Amino acid sequence: MKKVKVLVITAIAALTLSACGTTQTVPITGRTHRISSTYDDQQILSLSTQEYQKFMKTAKKSTNASQTAMVQRVGSRLANAVVKFLNNNGYSEDVKNYNWEFNLIQDKEANAWCMPGGKIVVYEGLLPYTQNETCLAIVLGHEIAHAVAKHSAELLTKQQNQSTLIGLGSSVVGAIAGDANVGKITGELASGYAQFRNLKYSRQNELEADHLGLIFAAMAGYDPQQAIPFWQRMGQKSGSGSSDIFSTHPSDIKRIKALQSEMAEAMTYYKSATVTKKTSTKKTPAKKSTKKR
To answer: Would you give per-residue pLDDT tens digits along the chain (293 residues)?
Structure first.
């Protein structure tokens, strides 16, 4: 029993340590999540930069100049709108961590991804589905959202806490049962369940990135309503059904339904952006000359 008490005390101490970190609020959605001090911004940025550089050393950049320019043009427009929003809404410290870069890569896969810190890669195979700059903005807004919401650090924190709990829990169970194998089996079962739960967390983060990305595209002056036909095209490509329980991503049907429910909110940002654009581009009448002739 003494051994069990020691393990319980150790578990409490470990849980206290695993809880250390900061509670952060995701812009727009207002959702709060906790990021472990192990995965602070500098740690995450350092790791992501290393991985990004490794990828870019082997990847082949697109030779299509017009498509490359489009990706960079749309990406820069989105990044500027997002940075302006974050600076104006209390997230200026986070803005310091972004070093935006947008690359188009020779790859037939319909995919895009973003590293923490703003390194975004688009595969050429995605462009037949985006078809235009507006739908490309929907995708890039989604990828930017992952960085802004710090989804990578959030998932790593969850995995760290799960690992701590499983390790200590299996030790306690094994000590109580007086059989290390019982503890091992318990740990394996718990690990499998944790992996299954993480699929749900991943799907939730994808839906949040869809939501934020829709707003970001609208902020930059891109019509968010184009997100629906884009995801319909992606759904036709994947042929996925409504069940996504064993997937890291939500089904296209669920994505479209969620986007439709968020469209009214996105349209307010879009209307504001278009009004601002019209106002800024409106020519100021020339002043009449007061010079005497």
So the answer is: 444 343 333 444 444 444 557 898 999 999 998 888 777 788 888 888 899 999 999 999 999 999 999 999 999 999 999 999 999 999 999 999 999 999 999 999 999 999 989 999 999 999 999 999 999 999 999 999 999 999 888 888 877 765 655 454 444 444 454 444 434 443 343 343 334 344 455 688 899 999 999 999 999 999 999 999 999 998 887 665 554 444 656 888 899 999 999 999 999 999 999 887 666 655 545 454 444 44
Q: Domains of the chain: which residue ranges? A: 41-270
Query: What tokens were used for 244?
Result: 């996504």
**206 catalytic residue (yes or no):** no
- Residues 253, 263: Cα–Cα separation, whole Å: 15
| Residue corresponding to tokens 């309503």 | 225
Q: Which of 93, 133, 143, 262 is catalytic?
A: 143
What CA–CA distances, in Å, run from 192 to 156, 168, 189, 210? 17, 16, 5, 28
Return d(Cα 211, Cα 216) in angstroms, integer. Answer: 9
CA distances 290 to 284, 285, 287, 293, Å, are: 18, 15, 9, 9
Q: How many CB atoms lie within 10 A of CB 17?
A: 13
Numbers of helices and strands, H then E, in the chain: 10, 5
Q: Are 18 and 37 in contact (CB under 8 A)?
A: no
**DSSP one-letter string for 12-71:** HHHHHHHT-EEEEE-TTT--EEEEEGGG-HHHHHHHHHHHHHHHHHHS-B---HHHHHHH
The span from the CA of 49 to the CA of 54, in Å, is: 9
